[in-house]
Write a structure and sequence with these properties.
- The chain is of the alpha/beta class.
- Helix content is 33%, strand content 13%.
- The chain is built from 10 helices and 7 strands.
- The strands form 2 sheets. Strands 1-7-6-2 form a 4-stranded antiparallel sheet. Strands 4-3-5 form a 3-stranded parallel sheet, covered by helices on one side.
- A hairpin with a 3-residue loop joins strand 6 and strand 7.
- Helix 5 packs across helix 10.
- The longest helix has 16 residues.
- It starts with a helix and ends in an 11-residue tail after the last helix.
Length: 284
Amino acid sequence: MAAPAGRCLWRALAPRRGWVFPGLDQRLAAAPALVSVAPPARSYAAAAKTAKKGSRRTKQEETIKKKVTRRWPLMSKPVDDVYLTWYYERPSYDVEEAVGMLKKFQELDFTNPKQYVYINVFLDMALQKKKKVDPFASTVLLPYRFTDEMNKVLVFTENEQEAEIARENGAAVVGGVELIKWILEDEIQVDFYVAVPAIMPKLIPLRSKLKRKYPSTKKNSMGHDIPKMLQLFREGLEYMVEGERLIKTRIARLDMPTEQIVANLKTVIHDICTFKPLTYGGSC
């Protein structure tokens, strides 16, 4: 305790030590040990101790953060005409009933009776061990057409007889390897590409350019039956998976008979089910 006391005293009397206590300098110098033993002044603050992960306070804070608002079970059917929709289960209808409601709403809203009917299909793409089904695209021929639009189809073949068949069945462009350069330079742009097997080895330079539209047997765009392929891709409906799990596509016009709308819907659903892995049943 002597050292701190001596140091404080020195600070207090230093301005006047020359004339009030002329012998103070000598006396303090005679006892250097009392001054030098004091620890040096610390110019920084001690780091605050962090709370342990397992402390009670931390657990209480985590409990408060994880506190979930209690949800009451939804009621099945509202009693009144006016009600809060989130208090009740979302209603579901048979396909025929849903189409009938759309037709009724069109009359009440005075909207276009020939408007398109769209469907949203949400898929479960998850597989075992964090794997999932890759997004896919397909073209399906509907039993009842609802538009006069025709897709443009290019046919790859070097056989003159096959080329003539392709032209007779409505191909927009027919040719062989001479078309590759024009396609790479975007001089030729069509909706679909089909090919006969004999020319496929020569079309490899187009694989990265055409991507999912590159001819293949899996997509029914490569084969010997040129008229069948042209009918599928000229008149067919193309759909694809968007955002990893959603298929949104039109299937009919609202002024079509309900039976035709339902038939088109079932055709699209059946085609979607063909992409279901065999280990999970293969089809719906």
